[in-house]
Amino acid sequence: MKHFNIAVIAGDGIGPEVIAEGKKVFSGIAEMDGGFSVSFEDFPWGCEYYLKTGEMMPTDGLDILKPFDAIYLGAVGYPGVPDHVSLGGLLLQIRRGFDEYINLRPVRLLKGAPCPLANVLPDDINMIVVRENSEGEYANVGAHLYPGTEREMALQTGVFSRHGCERVIRYAYELARLEKRSLTSISKGNALRYSMVFWDEIFAEIGREYPDVETHSLLVDAASMFFVKDPGRFEIVVTSNLFGDILTDLGAAIAGGMGLAAGANLNPERKYPSMFEPIHGSAPDIAGQETANPLASIWSISQMLEFLHEQEWAERILSAIETLLVERRTLTPDLGGSAKTSEIGAAILEILER
Ligand SMILES: NC(=O)c1ccc[n+]([C@@H]2O[C@H](COP(=O)([O-])OP(=O)(O)OC[C@H]3O[C@@H](n4cnc5c(N)ncnc54)[C@H](O)[C@@H]3O)[C@@H](O)[C@H]2O)c1
Questions:
Q1: How many CB atoms lie within 10 A of CB 271?
Q2: Closest ligand 1 atom to 87 CA
Q3: Does the beta carbon of 293 lie inside 6 Å of ligand 1?
Q4: Options 3.40.718.10, 3.40.640.10, 3.40.50.10420, 3.30.565.10; which CATH number does 1-100+274-353 get?
Q5: Topology adopted by domain 115-255
Q6: Looking at residue 68, what is its pLDDT?
Q7: Count of alpha carbons within 13 Å of 352, Cβ hemisphere only?
Q8: Where does the record place the Isopropylmalate dehydrogenase-like domain (predicted)?
Q9: Which stretches of the chain drop beneath a pLDDT of 70?
Q10: In terms of pTM, does the model score above 0.90?
Q11: Backbone angles phi, psi at 41, to 5 degrees
């Protein structure tokens, strides 16, 4: 029997609350399927751990995580620890250390999910954003010089290597070809005349190998406008680390809210474990209240199962989420319901069992 060994970093704030529901769903599915089993190992890393030890995770954290089939992450960050410390000390370490250079973020309006846009139907919002996840503006290259003097300055450098751009752009072309959908590259070549012009050139260059893929190129400012005015024009989207981060929050806002947005950090070669997480943060404003929506975390389990070659379960989880949204019986307050976070996993399993 196949066995999946999953490392769990529930993290801070609402992280543990939402992750508990995803674990319930995965365990329940393993029982229903009978053809595979799953075990979870929990790691107490995050801001509390930092306050005790001075580190977000142990120095050998990556060695500890490496043997697992996948990593399931809640959220990191909490008042009391600077955000650049919490993000840089854990999430970015894992993404970079495990060469998870693809961040796949579906922006899909499920039936029954709220949408703030007028006259939009679920079919109108259905895209996959392929975000570069290892370099770009988040490459951790820069300096803070002459602090406390009148010459003080900060430099933050974006890193766009040929290797880094080519591999993410090629991945997006392959996905577009496989799914027979158009591909839109989002950049900013008019203002960022080195990095983004380079990106645009590579996008055009690789495109010559994919004459069957319909392509579009947009500047990020225009793309943001179209996300709101005409989201139906986007099918597969490829973009840089920073732009992808921002655009997918906008994507979450038009497709059901932060409680419904999932993301997969993939190392496509499977040399290292990939990491699956809701894209929202630790939401300190609602932590501990049992009101957080765990559907994004459960959607991340769907992404994880897809990556673990359990495609059918991946799809069934998504349609169970959709049924939950349409039936409106067990929803958290952000979706207009009064259910507790801890009731959602069981509700999804009940739908899957029907
Ligand atoms: N991947 C990550 O771990 C990640 C991502 C973003 C932010 N953060 C960190 O999280 C902390 C809070 O950041 P923020 O407030 O900017 O973003 P956030 O995503 O935590 O919250 C933004 C808003 O969305 C709401 N929200 C988020 N997730 C929700 C859910 N599942 N159900 C219902 N409502 C939800 C919150 O209540 C809040 O009002 C910071 O420390 C930040 O650095 C972590």
A1: 9
A2: 43
A3: yes
A4: 3.40.718.10
A5: Isopropylmalate Dehydrogenase (3.40.718)
A6: 98
A7: 26
A8: 5-348
A9: none
A10: yes
A11: -120, 125
